[in-house]
Design brief:
Layout (H helix, E strand, L loop, with lengths): L9 E5 H15 L3 E2 L4 H6 L2 H10 L4 E4 L2 H9 L5 E4 L8 H6 L3 E4 L2 H13 L4 E6 L14 H8 L5 E7 L11 H15 L8 E5 L1 H6 L7 E2 L26 E6 L2 E5 L4 E2 L5 E2 L4 E6 L16 E4 L2 E6 L7 E4 L12 E8 L2 E3 L1 H8 L3 H6 L7 E4 L7
Parallel strand pairs: 1-20, 2-9, 3-4, 4-5, 5-6, 6-7, 7-8, 8-9
Antiparallel strand pairs: 1-10, 10-18, 11-14, 12-13, 14-17, 15-16, 15-18, 16-17, 18-19
This protein binds pyridoxal-5'-phosphate.
């Protein structure tokens, strides 16, 4: 188990912060349900750890990307209702039915294949019909939904439990497009009332903060449960109360004094400008520390921002810890993402440097990095 990992590079998963974030989101949506999205290994936080904690808080329904993600959680002994958010193919129907997963569907072909499989198993399968109100990725066009539901009446083993859609632009300051989209979804819901749909859902994290009209029956938060902002454009100041769940750390394994003008790491992409104290840490792009951060990021050592120097390699990275001369030793903790003393490096900071979003930073931390759940701010080093 990860708790026993001897690895020096670790991702700590702060369960108290997760609980705090869920309470905040729940306060925003009131009595509506939240279906946390735990796809992509819970945005890199470790789906087993996250889902266990969320279950202990009373959450029972979770969004996974595909059948395999759901199966991994079932096999880990975490029974729950798993909504499969990405489109599956007929070859997945047997597993979907066997585990009573709830797929999101966009084709009659899938509806029929699922119904056939459910009938064979003597079961009914619940599904959520995806409506493309503007994401342009998956889903049925709004004007075709009624006809689709009508055709599904022919499949008694298929229970259309939900109608869902997804916002492509709810994280932007200008909500005009999202409101238009919500209007389209509402018209679909009004036009399909006689089908007895139980749950209507469209809200993601950004919409939970900034589009209360979109809550409907259920909201599907992802990024916010991990304490990260959906974007820099969220208007609701309560977004600032989120607490980052993940902390990514490593330890110093080597220290050396080098003279000025010394080339370091592959390609000598960095030369020391003065006599320098250089630390080596066992983290690299093989752990998800993006090579494009080479010579372009800082880490925390003893609460001090220290520049990363030279090319980030697969397994090892160099730091200039000259500022800590006489004050730093082998084994000392280095924070890549997280807090140390008064300083903090956020996933957003790394995202900005890479021209990407915080979602990709945390999801990109590789499986080599053990995820260690912590209850308090105490870390097991
Ligand atoms: C991932 C996902 C979400 C959650 O989005 P966040 O922006 O992370 O809150 C919601 N709905 C669907 C369909 C998703 O795939």
């Amino acid at each position: 188990m990860s708790e026993q990992s001897v690895r020096l590079t670790k991702a700590f998963v702060n369960l108290q912060h997760l609980t705090h974030n869920m309470r905040l989101l729940q306060e925003l949506v009131g009595s509506r349900q939240l279906w946390p999205c735990i796809k992509a290994d819970a945005y890199g936080h470790g789906a087993i750890i996250i889902t266990r904690q969320l279950k202990s808080l009373g959450y029972k329904t979770f969004g996974v990307a595909d059948v395999e993600e759901g199966m991994a959680l079932v096999q880990a002994g975490i029974p729950a209702t798993y909504i499969v958010l990405s489109e599956a193919l007929p070859e997945h129907c047997q597993a979907l039915v066997a585990h009573s997963f709830e797929p999101t569907i966009s084709t009659l072909n899938m509806a029929e294949a699922l119904a056939r499989e459910a009938e064979k198993a003597g079961k009914r399968i619940s599904v959520h019909v995806k409506v493309d109100t503007g994401m342009g990725r998956l889903g049925i066009q709004p004007e075709d939904v009624r006809n689709f539901l009508e055709q599904c009446q022919a499949f008694p083993a298929l229970h259309i439990r939900g109608l869902m859609s997804h916002f492509p632009r709810a994280d932007e300051a200008d909500k005009e497009y999202s409101l238009e989209q919500l209007g389209r979804f509402r018209r679909v819901l009004e036009g399909t009332q006689e089908y007895g749909i139980e749950v209507r859902h469209i809200a993601n994290s950004a919409a939970i903060f900034d589009l209360p009209d979109s809550y409907l029956d259920v909201a599907r938060p992802g990024i916010a449960i991990y304490g990260l902002h959906p974007s820099g454009e969220i208007a609701n100041s309560r977004v600032n109360a989120l607490k980052p769940v993940l902390e990514w750390t490593t330890r110093i394994v080597f220290l050396k004094e080098v003279s000025a003008g010394m080339g370091l790491s592959y390609g000598h992409a960095y030369h020391t400008k003065r006599p320098s104290l250089i630390a080596t840490v066992p983290v690299g792009y093989g752990d998800g520390l993006n090579r494009n951060l080479s010579n372009n990021c800082t880490v925390l050592v003893h609460g001090v921002r220290c520049p990363q120097v030279g090319r980030i390699t697969m397994d090892l990275t160099l730091l200039d810890v000259t500022a800590l001369r006489g004050n730093v030793q082998l084994g000392d903790e280095v924070v890549i993402i997280g807090r140390q003393g008064a300083e903090e490096v956020t996933a957003d900071e790394l995202a900005r440097k890479l021209g990407t979003i915080n979602y990709e930073i945390v999801t990109g931390i590789s499986h080599r990095v053990p995820r260690i759940p912590i209850q308090l701010d105490e870390k097991i080093k």
